[in-house]
C-alpha cells in the first residue's frame, strides 16, 4: 500500500513538473498561474499544494529537473576514454548550444536566477548540474597529468562562473547565434589553456623565452 501511494505521489509530482515546464517555457513564470499548472497536470489545486508550497517551489523543482537532464545529456555526449580537457571543451560547446533550446533558455537562464536568487540558482546546479561534472573533468585532467593539480576546486568555480556568464549573455542577446559562436571560441581557448605543456609545472599557455639583453 505504501509503495503504491509513493508511486502515485511521484507520478503526480512528475505531472506537475512537466506541466509547469511547458507553461513556463511558453508563457514565462510571471504569466503562469497555479490554476493553469493544476489544470494542465490534471490534478486538483489541493494536490498541487500538497506537494509544493508555492509557485516558486515548483520553479525550483522544474529547474532541478532540467539540471539533471542536462547532466545526463552532457555525460552522453562525452566519448569514453577521451582526453579530459577535450571532453571539457566538448561539454562546454554542447552546453552553450543547449542554451538556445526554449525550455532551458527561458527557465534555467532567465526565470530561475531572477526568481530563486543567485545563491539558490547556483546551489541547485552544484548539487545536480554541470558544476559537479566540471570538477570531475578537472580532477581527471590532473590525474592524467594534463593540468596542474593545484587549486582544482577554486579553478572549477572560476570556470563554471565563466560558462554560466556566457550562457546568460547568449540567453539575453539579440543575436544569440553570433554571441554563442564568440563565447564558444573564447571558452574553448580558456579551457585549452588549462593544459600543462611538457616541462612546465602548471597549466596555462607557454610563455616565450625572453631574449637575452
Automatic annotation (TrEMBL):
<dbReference type="InterPro" id="IPR050109">
    <property type="entry name" value="HTH-type_TetR-like_transc_reg"/>
</dbReference>
<feature type="domain" description="HTH tetR-type">
    <location>
        <begin position="10"/>
        <end position="70"/>
    </location>
</feature>
<keyword id="KW-0238">DNA-binding</keyword>
<dbReference type="GO" id="GO:0003700">
    <property type="term" value="F:DNA-binding transcription factor activity"/>
</dbReference>
<keyword id="KW-0805">Transcription regulation</keyword>
<dbReference type="Pfam" id="PF00440">
    <property type="entry name" value="TetR_N"/>
</dbReference>
<protein>
    <submittedName>
        <fullName>TetR family transcriptional regulator</fullName>
    </submittedName>
</protein>
<feature type="region of interest" description="Disordered">
    <location>
        <begin position="194"/>
        <end position="213"/>
    </location>
</feature>
<dbReference type="InterPro" id="IPR001647">
    <property type="entry name" value="HTH_TetR"/>
</dbReference>
<keyword id="KW-0804">Transcription</keyword>
<dbReference type="GO" id="GO:0000976">
    <property type="term" value="F:transcription cis-regulatory region binding"/>
</dbReference>
<dbReference type="GO" id="GO:0045892">
    <property type="term" value="P:negative regulation of DNA-templated transcription"/>
</dbReference>
<dbReference type="InterPro" id="IPR049484">
    <property type="entry name" value="Rv0078-like_C"/>
</dbReference>
<dbReference type="Pfam" id="PF21351">
    <property type="entry name" value="TetR_C_41"/>
</dbReference>
<feature type="DNA-binding region" description="H-T-H motif">
    <location>
        <begin position="33"/>
        <end position="52"/>
    </location>
</feature>
<dbReference type="InterPro" id="IPR009057">
    <property type="entry name" value="Homeodomain-like_sf"/>
</dbReference>
Amino acid at each position: 500500500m505504501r509503495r503504491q501511494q509513493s508511486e502515485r505521489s511521484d507520478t503526480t509530482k512528475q505531472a506537475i513538473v512537466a506541466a509547469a515546464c511547458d507553461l513556463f517555457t511558453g508563457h514565462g513564470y510571471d504569466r503562469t498561474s497555479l490554476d493553469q499548472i493544476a489544470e494542465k497536470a490534471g490534478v486538483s489545486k489541493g494536490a498541487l499544494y500538497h506537494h509544493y508550497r508555492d509557485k516558486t517551489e515548483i520553479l525550483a523543482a522544474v529547474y532541478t529537473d532540467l539540471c539533471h537532464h542536462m547532466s545526463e545529456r552532457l555525460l552522453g555526449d562525452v566519448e569514453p576514454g577521451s582526453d579530459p580537457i577535450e571532453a571539457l571543451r566538448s561539454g562546454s560547446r554542447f552546453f552553450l548550444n543547449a542554451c538556445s533550446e526554449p525550455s532551458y533558455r527561458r527557465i534555467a537562464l532567465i526565470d530561475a536566477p531572477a526568481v530563486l536568487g543567485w545563491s539558490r540558482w547556483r546551489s541547485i546546479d552544484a548539487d545536480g548540474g554541470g558544476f559537479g561534472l566540471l570538477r570531475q573533468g578537472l580532477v581527471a585532467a590532473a590525474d592524467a597529468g594534463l593540468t596542474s593539480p593545484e587549486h582544482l576546486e577554486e579553478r572549477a568555480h572560476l570556470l563554471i562562473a565563466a560558462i554560466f556568464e556566457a550562457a546568460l549573455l547568449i540567453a539575453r542577446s539579440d543575436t544569440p547565434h553570433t554571441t554563442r559562436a564568440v563565447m564558444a571560441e573564447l571558452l574553448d581557448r580558456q579551457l585549452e589553456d588549462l593544459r600543462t605543456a611538457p616541462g612546465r609545472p602548471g597549466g596555462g599557455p607557454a610563455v616565450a623565452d625572453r631574449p637575452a639583453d
